[in-house]
Amino acid sequence: AQSVTQLDSQVPVFEEAPVELRCNYSSSVSVYLFWYVQYPNQGLQLLLKYLSGSTLVESINGFEAEFNKSQTSFHLRKPSVHISDTAEYFCAVYGGSQGNLIFGKGTKLSVKP
Amino acid sequence: NAGVTQTPKFQVLKTGQSMTLQCAQDMNHNSMYWYRQDPGMGLRLIYYSASEGTTDKGEVPNGYNVSRLNKREFSLRLESAAPSQTSVYFCASSEGPAGAQDTQYFGPGTRLTVL
């Protein structure tokens, strides 16, 4: 069965500092991985996804994630964060036959001035 | 193009009351989903619908029923609400059939409290 582990429940950082949000997965089927972001009092929005091809995927707002098959990881990184990046980030793996996503428990990123 | 809409945004129920959460999408998507979000638990799938007229159980279906009214609308019903159903409920939709690795688009959520 598929599962996702987000290793940090909260990550506080200062503005303009780099950040890494860690995600490990287990999957017995082909691996398709997603990062979603949830801003306060909003629904989830897709940040980026890995389906195939290049193992490094990027979002339009400067985040990137690298699919590492040997380490079963899909960590999310940003070299310099902004106050506006404060949100909860969810890593997810495609669940298979149901078409649903299996979500991690989320990491709350708090960017301080 | 509103995407995925949900009503109501907030609801307070007493134990034993019933209610229906409404969801609609205007993207002509085939698949629709209901998730619940609880603190420290991430999102868990309640029910999904791969196409109009079909519904299937997800990870936590007990205490819920769903109806795929047409291609646009997918409702979630609580027949006899319990405090354990206090949660934030999200509806989502995706273009392809269930089993395709499509992006899922989420609604803004319904915050439900059961006293």
The gist of it:
By secondary structure, chain A is mainly β. Chain A has strands at residues 3-6, 10-14, 19-21, 23-26, 33-38, 44-50, 56-58, 64-68, 73-78, 87-94, 101-103, 107-112.
Q: What's the topology here?
A:
The complex is a heterodimer of chains A (113) and B (115).
Chain A: E1 3-6, E2 10-14, E3 19-21, E4 23-26, E5 33-38, E6 44-50, E7 56-58, E8 64-68, E9 73-78, E10 87-94, E11 101-103, E12 107-112
Parallel strand pairs in A: 2-12
Antiparallel strand pairs in A: 1-4, 3-9, 5-6, 5-10, 7-8, 8-9, 10-11, 10-12
Chain B: E1 4-7, E2 10-13, E3 19-25, E4 31-38, E5 42-49, E6 56-57, E7 64-68, E8 74-78, E9 87-94, E10 105-106, E11 110-114
Parallel strand pairs in B: 2-11
Antiparallel strand pairs in B: 1-3, 3-8, 4-5, 4-9, 5-6, 7-8, 9-10, 9-11
Structure description:
The complex is a heterodimer of chains A (113) and B (115). By secondary structure, chain A is mostly beta strands. Chain A has no helices and 12 strands. In chain A, the strands form 3 sheets. In chain A, strands 2, 5, 6, 10, 11 and 12 form a 6-stranded mixed beta sheet that branches. The termini of chain A are far apart. Chain B has 115 residues and is mostly beta strands. Chain B contains no helices and 11 strands. In chain B, the strands form 2 sheets. In chain B, strands 2, 4, 5, 6, 9, 10 and 11 form a 7-stranded mixed beta sheet that branches. In chain B, strands 1-3-8-7 form a 4-stranded antiparallel beta sheet, with no helix packed on it. In chain B, strand 4 (31-38) and strand 5 (42-49) form a beta hairpin. Chain B is globular, with a radius of gyration of 13 Å. Classes of the chains: A mainly beta (113), B mainly beta (115).
